[in-house]
Amino acid sequence: MACPREFPYAGQKFIYRNHSPMKTMKQFDLNIEKVLEDWGVHHALREVIANALDEQALTNTKDVAIFKDKDGWHICDYGRGLKYNHLTQNEDKEKHAHPDKVIGKFGVGLKDAFATFDRKNIGVRITSQYGHITLGKATKHGFENITTLHALIDESSDPKFVGTEFTFKGVKDNDIRLAKEFFLKFSDEQVLEATQYGQVLDRGKAKKARIYIGGLRVAEEDNFLFSYNITAVNAAIRKALNRERTNVGRTAYTDRVKAILLGCASKEVARLLVDDLKNFEEGTTHDEMGLTDIQVHACKLLNASGDVIFLTPAQMFSAKEMVDRAKKDGYTVVAVPESVREKIKGLKDLKGMPMRDLEEYTREWNTSFEFNFITEKDMTKKEREIFRKTDAILKLIGGKPRNVKTIKVSETMRLESFGYHEAAGVYESMNQRIVIKRTQLRKLQEYAGTLLHEAAHALSNAGDVSPEFEAELTELLGMIASKVL
């Protein structure tokens, strides 16, 4: 297979040099002081791929090519071409100027890779417009008794060669597979949302969540809901990024993960976070939801994105009538733990709107409430018979109170002051009227009890005492009235 580039070099015969150099070649001492004994071939390949991806990002050239032919495995970029002086261990000013685009910033990784290739007997040849580089052992300048690893530089055979090509002999297919697994680019994880600090990723088929820094995997998490790609590196992460660039501790990136999630504004991420909250009380949520700020932010996001109402499991049971009403009104009911409900109570979402818990929904419902009054002609025969006993019922307490001008019947009713159910009746001092819910006309006892109850409020101007007392009083008044009548 030929290298897929404008000026192909692959296919020419060449020699992998990992031994003594030819005298005509330039010798560049790599000055490697310490060999990373734990590195495998895939770690070294990771550094080569990282450099290629960085060059692609900085030069905006076409995708890096990784392929195999009769010469071995190839890693090609189509950038400006590698020079031997790039092998010095210095900070790369260009990469530091574009931290959001690149993975590496020093010359350490590539030199460590060369040392690993040499230790693992992997043949390496680097080709660019500036020449060919292979590896070999040579005596250290000025110290003839010390042999070190050198880069052996040969003159270019193609000054028009585009980019840089690494060709390897002895690299196995599994080495390439493992190397590619370090990179977000080669995973099936998809970006759910991007923020100024990094990206939230759908984990895809991965058994563990992955933490990437600039697209390079540095850690894995067993109990994260998402994978993350950190693009804005802070001091803690810089300090934790060692030469190996793996197994970075959670303490180094927790703040960045938190910042990424707090920077999210999409309904999709909010929904997934809030759905995970449902398992909070059972202790089976993912680790991100253990952060209070994330819990609250997720609810704020969802509140701002549409018609939702946050209820605890207990409220969904005790206020079933209101839950059903909310659903009929087009609201999505979201179950949250009691601890979360307490945290969002009284807050506003990202658009400045109140968080809609049961109390807020009730307030909104009552504010927009309108009575649907009916007249006698709208009533059934039985309802009219009961309603026409209104004056007789009120005579039991001396007649209609002076501050009550009208008695009306409505299909709809305001909510009880003690709960989330429609009241049976209400006294409105401002309008000087008593309104009874139509359902109370099913039985004389129910209508009489409710009418006398509201008349008592009109006479005393006292509020309700408790739901239990009010219910018992209404029932008692109804029984007495029905027996007398």
Protein architecture, described:
With about 475 residues, this protein is α+β, with helices and mostly antiparallel strands. The protein has helices at about 40-60, 95, 110-120, 175-180, 235-240, 250-260, 265-275, 290-305, 315-320, 320-330, 340-345, 360-365, 380-385, 390-395, 445-460, 465-485, and strands spanning about 25-30, 65-70, 70-75, 125-130, 130-140, 145-155, 165-170, 190-195, 200, 210-215, 215-220, 225-230, 310, 330-335, 375, 405-410, 425-430, 435. It folds into four domains: about 25-180, Heat Shock Protein 90, CATH 3.30.565; about 185-260, no CATH class; about 265-365, no CATH class; about 375-485, Zincin-like (2-Layer Sandwich), CATH 3.30.2010. It is built from 16 helices and 18 strands. Strands 1-6-5-4-7-3-2 form a seven-stranded antiparallel beta sheet. It has a five-stranded mixed beta sheet with strand order 8-9-12-10-11, covered by helices on one side. A four-stranded mixed beta sheet has the order 15-16-18-17. A hairpin with a 2-residue loop joins strand 2 and strand 3 (about 70-75). The relative contact order is 0.07.
Name the shape in a single word: rod-shaped
Determine the CATH topology of the largest domain: Heat Shock Protein 90
Q: What is the topology, as strand order, of the major beta sheet?
A: 1-6-5-4-7-3-2
How much strand?
15-25%
- Estimated helix fraction: 25-40%
Q: What is the total number of structural domains?
A: 4
CATH class assignment of the largest domain: Alpha Beta
Poorly predicted runs of 5 or more residues: 5-15, 17-23
How far is the first residue's CA from the last residue's CA? 103 Å
Largest sheet: 7 strands, antiparallel
Mean of residue pLDDT values: 82
Q: Which oligomeric form is depicted? A: single chain
Task: Give Rg in angstroms.
Answer: 38 Å
How many individual β-strands? 18
- Enumerate how many helices there are, as a single number: 16
- Secondary structure category: alpha+beta
Using the 3D structure, state the CATH architecture of the largest domain: 2-Layer Sandwich
